[in-house]
Write a structure and sequence with these properties.
This protein is mainly α and 588 residues long. Among the domains are: 47 residues, no CATH class; 131 residues, Tetratricopeptide repeat domain (Serine Threonine Protein Phosphatase 5, Tetratricopeptide repeat, Alpha Horseshoe); 96 residues; 74 residues, Helix Hairpins (Orthogonal Bundle), CATH 1.10.287.110. It is built from 28 helices and no strands. The longest helix has 30 residues. The radius of gyration is 35 Å and the shape is elongated.
Length: 588
C-alpha cells in the first residue's frame, strides 16, 4: 500500500545502523525487565544476576559498535563472527600438546583457531604469544600478549611475554620496562620478570641517552638538507622510502631522528599537510624543525608564504649551513618575484616575464614529476611553482594578448625545465595540475578559450573555477553565460552574452571595470595598473593648461576613477560589487 504526501511527512528519518542497533538493544533489555515484572520474578536473585550480565554484555557491544564507527577503525583478524567455546577449547588443548612437543608452527595454528573462535579468552591470546616468541615473530607476540593483558589485567605470563616481545622487537624500551614492573607487582618472585626488568632498564637508559644525543644533533641541525631536484626520488621511490620511514618512526615514537626522517620522507612524497603535523612533534628549539618547517611552508603556501619562511629562518640562532643556504635561495626568489611584480604593475610585461622565468629556473622551482618527468603522473605539489607559472602567463597575455600567432617568436629564451618554447596556456595548465583549486588560473584559461572561440572549453574551465570557488557570484554568472553560449552554438546561432564569458571587458556604461579599463576577471595587480593608468590620464594637474570644460571633465573622470578603485581595490568591497553592481554604480 502506497502512502500519500501527508503521511510521508509524518515518517521519521531513519537512524544510521549503529544508532538503530543501540536503540534496539536498549528496548529489548527494557522489554525483558517489564516481562519479568509481569511474572513477578524481577526481584529474584537469579534474575538480578542475569540482568547484570546482560547489562555488562550490552555495554561491551556498545563499546565495539562505537569503535567500529570510527573512520580509522580496522577490524581485528579474529573478529569474523564465528564463536564456539567448545571448539576453541579443543584447539587450545591441541596447541598446548604440540607446544610441549616443540612443534611450534603447528601449535601457533591451533592457538590461532582458538583465538578466532573465542577471542574474549585471555589465555588463548597469551598461549599464541608464547609460541610466537619461540618462532621469532616478535611483533605478533607483542600484539597477542597485550590483547591478553587487556582481557585479564592480572595475567602475569601475558605481561612478561608482552615485555619480552616489545624489547626484542626494538620498540620503546620504556614500555617494556613498565610491563616487567607490572608483572613483578602481580608476582614479586617472578624470576623471568626480574631478569627482564634489568635488561629493559639498561635498554631504556641507552635509549634515553640516544634520544638526548639525537635531540642535540637536531637542535644544531646536523642532518643533511633535502636533495636538489636532480637527485629527487621518483614517486615510486619516494613512496617506498615513506613506508620504511613510517615504520621506523612508529617503533621509535620519541626519537628525533626517526621523526625527522619521517617528515623528510613526507616532503619528498609531496604529503605536505601530514608533514606539517609531523614537524610539530620535533623539539621546539630544533634547527632541523625550523629548516623543515620553512621547506614545507613555501612549497605548501606558495609565494605568499616566502616572507614568513624567511622570517622564521632568520630567527634561528647560530644557523647551520643548510638554513643559511635555504634563506639565500628564498631571498633570491623573493627578489625576482618582487621585480616581476613591479615590472608587471608598471606595464613592462616583457621584463616581468623575464623575471618570472628566471625565478622558475631557480633550483627549487624546477618541475618535479608529472608530464616530462614521469609521463602520465601528477606533478609535485609545489605551490610556489604554480604561482610563478600563473604570474608568467599573465605577464605574457597582458603584454602580447591572446593571439598565439601574433606572439610567436617574441620570447627568445626557453624554460630549462623542458625543450618546448614557453606557452602561457601550457603554463596555466601545469599551474592547475599542481593546484586544481586555483580558481584564478581556471578563469584565465577560460578567457584564453573564449578569445579562441572555443565556447565548450570555456564552459568546462569555468565549471572548474566554480568548483574551486563555489560561492563566487561573478563566476556563477560567467558559468551561466557560458552555458547559454554552448547551447546557442549547438542550435546553430550565437549567444550575444558570450562576449561576457570568462572575464571579458565589461562594456556596460558606468561599470567600474570599464572605468579602470580592465576585465571583470582582472587580478589585484591588473586593477592597480588600470587605476594608475586611468588616474595618470585624468589627473587634473595634466589638464590645467586646457582649463574650462576640459578641466572640469578631467576632474569628474578622476573622481570616477578614484571611486572605482576604492571599490575594486578592496577585496571585500569588490565581492559586494560583483554581487550587486547597481548599488555601487548608482552613486557614480
Amino acid at each position: 500500500m502506497f502512502f500519500d504526501q501527508a503521511s510521508a511527512a509524518e515518517v521519521r528519518a531513519a537512524a544510521d545502523p549503529a544508532d538503530a542497533g543501540s536503540h534496539w538493544r536498549r528496548e529489548k533489555l527494557k522489554d525483558l525487565v517489564w516481562r519479568a515484572k509481569c511474572l513477578h520474578v524481577h526481584d529474584t536473585p537469579e534474575f538480578a544476576e542475569a540482568i547484570e550480565q546482560l547489562k555488562s554484555l550490552t555495554a561491551q557491544v556498545e563499546h565495539i559498535a562505537h569503535a567500529q564507527a570510527q573512520p580509522n577503525y580496522r577490524t581485528p583478524w579474529w573478529m569474523d563472527g564465528e564463536y564456539d567455546d567448545a571448539r576453541a577449547e579443543a584447539h587450545n588443548d591441541r596447541g598446548v600438546a604440540l607446544q610441549k612437543q616443540k612443534k611450534h608452527d603447528d601449535a601457533f595454528d591451533e592457538f590461532t583457531e582458538a583465538v578466532r573462535l573465542a577471542p574474549s579468552r585471555a589465555v588463548y591470546h597469551a598461549n599464541r604469544a608464547a609460541v610466537a616468541l619461540k618462532l621469532g615473530r616478535d611483533a605478533c607476540a607483542a600484539s597477542d600478549a597485550l590483547h591478553a593483558c587487556e582481557r585479564d589485567p592480572n595475567h602475569v605470563a601475558a605481561h612478561v611475554r608482552a615485555a619480552k616481545a616489545t624489547l626484542r622487537a626494538r620498540r620503546d624500551p620504556e614500555e617494556s620496562l613498565r610491563l616487567f614492573e607490572r608483572a613483578l607487582v602481580l608476582d614479586p618472585g617472578n624470576v623471568a620478570a626480574a631478569r627482564g626488568k634489568a635488561d629493559a632498564s639498561a635498554a631504556a637508559g641507552a635509549a634515553r641517552a640516544e634520544r638526548a644525543a639525537q635531540t642535540e644533533r637536531a637542535r644544531r641541525g646536523e642532518r643533511d638538507p633535502l636533495p636538489p631536484p636532480s637527485d629527487w626520488p621518483t614517486p615510486a621511490e619516494a613512496a617506498d622510502a615513506l613506508l620504511a620511514a613510517e615504520e621506523v618512526a612508529r617503533l621509535h615514537p620519541r626519537m628525533e631522528g626517526p621523526i625527522t626522517a619521517h617528515c623528510e620522507a613526507l616532503v619528498l612524497c609531496g604529503r605536505l599537510e601530514r608533514a606539517v603535523e609531523t614537524t610539530a612533534r620535533l623539539a621546539a628549539d630544533s634547527a632541523d624543525r625550523a629548516y623543515l618547517a620553512a621547506e614545507i611552508a613555501w612549497r605548501r603556501g606558495g609565494l605568499a608564504a616566502v616572507d614568513g619562511a624567511l622570517t622564521s629562518l632568520a630567527a634561528v640562532p647560530s644557523p647551520p649551513k643548510k638554513i643559511v643556504e635555504l634563506g639565500s635561495r628564498l631571498a633570491r626568489l623573493k627578489e625576482l618575484v618582487d621585480r616581476g611584480d613591479a615590472d608587471d604593475e608598471d606595464g613592462r610585461f616583457e621584463s616581468a616575464e623575464r623575471a618570472f622565468t628566471a625565478a622558475l629556473r631557480l633550483r627549487d622551482q624546477r618541475r618535479l614529476w608529472g608530464p616530462g618527468n614521469a609521463p602520465g603522473g601528477e606533478p609535485y605539489p609545489n605551490r610556489c611553482r604554480a604561482d610563478l607559472l600563473r604570474a608568467r602567463a599573465v605577464a605574457r597575455l597582458d603584454g602580447f594578448g591572446y593571439d598565439r600567432e601574433g606572439a610567436e617568436g617574441v620570447a627568445e629564451w626557453d624554460d630549462d625545465d623542458d625543450d618546448r618554447r614557453f606557452d602561457p596556456e601550457a603554463d596555466l595548465e601545469e599551474c592547475v595540475a599542481i593546484d586544481p583549486g586555483d580558481a584564478e588560473a581556471w578563469r584565465i584559461l577560460a578567457d584564453v578559450s573564449r578569445r579562441g572561440g572555443d565556447v565548450e572549453r570555456t564552459f568546462l574551465r569555468l565549471r572548474k573555477a566554480q568548483a574551486s570557488a563555489p560561492h563566487d557570484a561573478k563566476i556563477a554568472r560567467e558559468v551561466f553565460a557560458a552555458a547559454r553560449a554552448v547551447k546557442a552554438e549547438a542550435d546553430g546561432g550565437t549567444y550575444e552574452g558570450a562576449r561576457g564569458v570568462g572575464g571579458a571587458m565589461d562594456r556596460r556604461p558606468g561599470s567600474l571595470y570599464k572605468i579602470l579599463g580592465v576585465a571583470a576577471s582582472a587580478t589585484a595587480k591588473q586593477i592597480r595598473r588600470g587605476y594608475r593608468k586611468a588616474a595618470g590620464k585624468w589627473h587634473p594637474d595634466k589638464w590645467q593648461h586646457e582649463g574650462g570644460d576640459a578641466l572640469a571633465r578631467a576632474e569628474a573622470e578622476f573622481r570616477r576613477v578614484s571611486a572605482a578603485y576604492e571599490v575594486l581595490g578592496n577585496p571585500s568591497r569588490r565581492r559586494a560589487y560583483d554581487s550587486d553592481p547597481a548599488r555601487f554604480e548608482a552613486s557614480l
